[in-house]
Amino acid sequence: MTTPTSDERALLVPDGLAGERVDVGLARMFGISRSKAADLVRQGLVALDGSAASKSDRLLPGALLEVSLPPVANPLEINAEEVEGITVIHDDESIVVIDKPVGVAVHPSMGWTGPTVVGHLVAAGYRIATSGAPERQGIVQRLDVGTSGVMVICKGERAYSVLKNAFRNREIDKTYHALVQGHPDPLEGTIDAPIGRAPKSDWKFAVREDGKHSVTHYETLEAHRFASLLEIQLETGRTHQIRVHMAALKHPCVGDLTYGADPTLAKRLGLERQWLHAVRLGFTHPDSGEYVEFTSPYPDDLARALEKIRDAD
After folding, report:
1. The domain that contains 57 carries what CATH number?
2. Domain membership of residue 38 as a residue range
3. Segment 155-177, tens digit of pLDDT
4. Which listed residue (99, 144, 256, 301) is catalytic?
5. Is 0.90 topped by the overall pTM?
6. By three-state DSSP, how is residue 24 classified?
7. 144 is catalytic
8. How confident is the model at residue 132 (pLDDT cuts 50, 70, 90)?
9. What is the domain count for the chain?
């Protein structure tokens, strides 16, 4: 991992900026915001004719304005940092299976500055396969930041190749539990509806004709007054698939305000995210060839919300 260096720049003040304050001239000459320019001056990173500049200094034509621009962090760079709440369920030479808590992304991405599974494993000393894009090496599956539960990461290259193909060929058993509003009719069934990006949104998805083939199987485990607990099997693995499909049925995951859930119910249950949890993951082990299965219990916030729903009957 390389350490980025500062960007040192220097320009002569043009006649057109004569008399302007240093921060104003800095912003215009180097194409940065006024607030950024003022911050650089405050940090002592700006010099005028060889002397540290203050924000109120005035510019003279031909003066040498120098600035040291701090390196910009790469948003896709892995930040090795252990994350509280990540539990290792299984660890061997080829794979590591974890229980991912809510609020943790699987790998770095544009716009995300929080903790990641990959960063935790690197910090904890785990070897991860080098296959895949640099920021998501070893990753063969993903869970949303707001979704908790069991997932597998590959430590070896052969494991990565085998499991990547298994996910692609839909040979992995992925089981989720979701608490959804109301009562789906029928109580069990299959949702076969293509999913694509929602119009006018870079972060929401929707059922749309030109979307990717998406199939979700569901079965009602418990039917309560305000909500139903479903067991869901994913045949495909699209981003937000369960959330989008349940919202399309008019039965959004409880607490999923992004996809139309009732905020009043979410508040009453103390939920700050969608009630959705990856409870089981089963697959053929890439080394032994034996079928293995791993499970994850409900985290405290989901367990409490479910009990409140049961008590409301």
Report:
1. 3.10.290.10
2. 7-69
3. 999 999 999 999 999 999 999 99
4. 144
5. no
6. helix
7. yes
8. confident
9. 3
